[in-house]
Design a protein that fits this description.
Length: about 270
């Protein structure tokens, strides 16, 4: 089973548009000492490939519980893009009205977990992905499949805690690909690394569209560290990300968009 390694809750950076836009994590003691059934949702995960998903709208849901072996807080992650139904013609796997109706108190009770948290809604920016997909569940009208496990240590802050422009590592066996000719947003850091935006944050109350954000370029960014810059680039060749050793490095920006590190050990080239 995959374990997503974050010091606190890294995907939040990738995921929530702002804490004010997201439902706060629902937390309390588990209703029993029994290990929740969702703890096994990734046990028999199988690798799947999904193509044609550039700009697909999705959410991720996190169900937090204690690891019965270590006592640490972990969260099962479910993604609405990787269900048996596939990608609809609308490219919207998490309709707004369905997301707004999500009942996190009910999720906590139904699955006997400590907390339930939302990631997104977001746009998925790679053109294709290969990922391990496990048990599919229906969260009150939004279907989502297990795709990862988040290590949260002893924190109880849910997935709404992260620091912009601070890299984190994530254990994953997935592959991602951007096709030649795809326009991407890149961040070049002061150490010479290049980061590619993987997930664009829409949030429950959007401030701008993806096209508007891209058109604004670096003028949109107010908290970039010294020496960092933004580039908009049309890829001249396919960009394929397959992290060596199954560990990727990701990073959020100030808008809760998420980026993956490119270059040696991460992707076939640095754009």
């Amino acid at each position: 089973m995959k374990a997503v390694h974050f010091a606190v809750a890294v995907l939040s950076a990738a995921l929530c548009a702002s804490c004010a836009q997201q439902p706060k994590p629902v937390e309390s003691s588990q209703t029993s000492t029994a290990v929740p059934a969702v703890a096994g949702d990734g046990a028999n995960a199988k690798s799947v490939r999904v193509d044609g998903i550039h700009k697909t709208r999705f959410i991720e849901l996190f169900l937090a519980h204690r690891d019965p072996k270590t006592g640490s807080l972990i969260a099962e992650c479910y993604n609405s893009m990787f269900t048996a139904e596939g990608i609809p013609a609308s490219r919207d796997t998490a309709p707004q009205q369905n997301v707004e109706r999500l009942d996190f108190d009910r999720m906590k009770r139904e699955y006997n977990v400590l907390g339930a948290s939302l990631n997104g809604p977001k746009l998925w920016l790679p053109n294709w992905t290969e990922i391990e997909s496990g048990v599919e569940r229906d969260f009150g009208g939004v279907k989502a499949a297990w795709v990862a496990r988040l290590n949260m240590g002893q924190t109880t802050g849910g997935v709404s805690e992260s620091t912009p422009y601070v890299p984190k590592t994530i254990a994953r066996k997935s592959g991602l690909g951007w096709n030649k000719g795809t326009t991407v947003l890149l961040l070049d850091d002061a150490d010479g690394n290049t980061w590619i935006m993987k997930g664009f944050q829409i949030g429950l109350h959007p401030k701008w569209t993806y096209d508007e954000f891209m058109a604004a370029g670096q003028s949109q960014f107010k908290q970039l560290p010294p020496g960092w810059k933004v580039r908009i680039k049309t890829l001249e060749a396919d960009l394929i990300e397959r992290p060596e050793g199954g560990v990727a490095t990701i990073m959020p920006d100030e808008f809760f968009n998420v980026y993956d590190k490119t270059g040696p050990g991460m992707s076939n080239y640095k754009p």
